[in-house]
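Q: What would this chain look like folded?
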Amino acid sequence: MSEHKKGWGNEVWIANSKLYCGKKLIINKGKKCSIHYHKIKDETFFIQGGKVRMEIYPEGYPREVKRIIMNAGDILHIPVGLVHQFFGIGNSEMFEFSTQHFEEDSYRYVYGD
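A: My prediction, written as structure tokens:
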């Protein structure tokens, strides 16, 4: 396991192999990640605790945004290419399950905290 400090909180990398990646994301209240997408990574998010607002752009950024409020137990799939961003409505813990993580596979439109 390894910990990665972010402006919005912390990522704890549980696993990152050629087959899959698992992370625990600790999101601080009022903080957000970048508006971004991935060309390779397919992600599923599970809210362990707290409240998160996920914003997705089904038609691409900056077209119409769809806002989804996620509470403990909620799950959201983010397929390859879907532009997205998360906001910590409260201090939150979220798990990310995905294909392998490559830092160079994050294409940002707007940087987060």
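The chain has no helices and eleven strands.
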